[in-house]
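dumping this here before i forget
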Amino acid sequence: MVRLRLANADEALSDALALLDRGSLRGAADRTYYAAFHAVSALALSQGKVFAKHQGVISFFHADCVRTGQFDACHGRALQQAFEARTEADYEDDAILDRETVSGRLADVRKLIEAIKAVLPSPGA
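structure:
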């Protein structure tokens, strides 16, 4: 299941890139967050933790991974900012997103995913 969630993270990241290239900033912001969400969910699952709500996943990452020093604060910010951008894109009709900001969030989430993959056991290990 951990590998499946990481695959979902990779797919969402790829989708975010494609949407950004098409100029679909709302879609790119949404998929960027879900890439982070799936990766952090994989990390939580690797530790035997499952959460029913997005806030549970976010809280887990901040409390169990960033505050403990396992992950850098920039990774916690990447997750939080991606969540906020997704919420704005999905729920605020008058949200104004700019390409530079969405692109930056995507780059930050890519680094977060890479950091998560670096601490998880490789497939078959």
